[in-house]
Amino acid sequence: MLAGTGGSATAETAAHLDPKRPVHDRVERLLDRMTLDEKIGQMTQAERGSVTAGDVTAYRLGSLLSGGGSVPTPNTPESWADMYDGFQRAALATPRRIPLIYGVDAVHGHNNVVGATIFPHNIGLGAARNPELVRRIGAATAEEVTGTGPDWNFAPCVCVARNDRWGRTYESFGEIPELPAQMTTAVSGLQGPRLGGPASVLATAKHYVGDGGTTGGVDQGNTEISEAELRRIHLPPFQAAIRRGAGSVMISFNSWNGVKAHGHRYLITDVLKKELRFSGLVVSDWNGIDQIDGQPGFTAAEVRTSINAGIDMVMVPNDWKRFIETLKAEVEAGRVPMSRIDDANRRILTKKVQLGLFERPLADRRYLRTVGSGEHRELARRAVAESQVLLKNEGNVLPLDRRDGRIFVAGKNADDIGNQSGGWTITWQGSSGDITPGTTILEGIRQTAGKRGTVTYSKDGSGVDGSYDAAVAVVGETPYAEFMGDRPGAMGLDAEDLATLQRLRASGVPVVVVLVSGRPLDVSAQLPQWNALVASWLPGTEGRGVADVLFGVRKPTGKLPVTWMKDVGQQPINKGDGKDPLFPFGYGLTYRR
Ligand code: GLC
After folding, report:
1. Ligand 1 centroid – CA 286 distance (Å)
2. Are 61 and 183 within one domain?
3. How many Å lie between the centroid of ligand 1 and the Cα of residue 428?
């Protein structure tokens, strides 16, 4: 008997589970049989720490996420796969057996997992100007994510960072739309040639739209620009991501001319879904719907407004039970049409079917061995080297002598994996210290210097004397993420770095500064005292890539992805704005020999 013609439940059940059927057909058959509770459950994304496996089954939850640093104990790849499978089995215990889709922020490698390969943050990849490298990094990241279970990555951020005060500047590939647009190869890397292939995870173009254009660079602030400027600067990377088949788009916290993006029907439905013909799923950001009315928590009005604006899945980490109740009441009251609920479910279920989650719901443990693999670390090392931007090299103090050079290394960021990785590393904010396996920049220097050479390290520079050929100062920022990294005031080096640099300068030894930071810093006053300056950005675990450039194993090829201010008063400063920078967008030196 044909399924769907009143046939037996078995035949009907088989319909949406039949991989031979067209995706659209499977989705429609499933949708026909789902209750309102099941449909609302699919639109609900809860944080793993606020649910039990029983909740997943009882409330028919469609998605879970690990927020930054939300990890199983122990935080090992195997433990991740066990956690994921536990939740997934709970989802498969529901009447419709609809698998979960599990999201993580693997924004520079699978960065929540100890032992994962941590790649340079996007600003460094923008400096590398290598879209194919970015695709390969996406593919490597997808392998590490797949082995541990999750099937959805809240990446790439395709934001266009227009003000370096913004705490998320390092999540941007650059200050002009062409760079993030070019680097949407990350989508191709993450998703693979087609969704559902081996090590294919759903990519997310984020944050829609204008997150990098807020007044004053305030994170989650107000982007006060014309529609023409919004379309010219902030929209193109999303168009590029959609052309590459990005399966999801995450809505941004910022407002556009005073209206929160999370409630903006014109931007989400008219522009993204209709004009740009985005057919994937739209997900809110973390409690993003709560911000629509400017008051804490969400109201029925905010639930109604965000869903009717076109959000398909709501990231409601903790208050998800109340969200489910509220949305159901809004639908039953006729204030959210069933057509909107069905559209959201079609989008969500289509991605789940395309990902092959119905056929292969559990972690693909074949990829566990790729987590932190030598192959991935070599790729990261290459990316680090290609991301270095040589900004000054007076007297060709670089490259350093590999044979028998006497090198003095100092600075708080020289021997600190946490500092060189930055935010979104093991924890949401990241942290200083030996937080995950890798090679610090100092270790890389020691490994690269010649056998007859000398490398002396002193964090604060004490002990330096005139007997050294060069003093390498690895300084800059310590980890931060999102609004915690906003810098509304000065943007110079901290007192610790300035004291270290002063000690080195007093020795009379040529000073090479390696700046580990998520953005340009205000260094004009100190620059004349430095013989060389390398913008290292946030390289991640493979610090040897920095040494590769310092010693000339690889020549510096990086180009600035952002304009470098002459002083903080110039912010925002961008290509073509007529201001006179310290170093212009696209600047970068190399070695003559
Ligand atoms: C955060 C970020 C977003 C991230 C999400 C889930 O607040 O804005 O980029 O994907 O929450 O962690």
Report:
1. 6
2. yes
3. 9
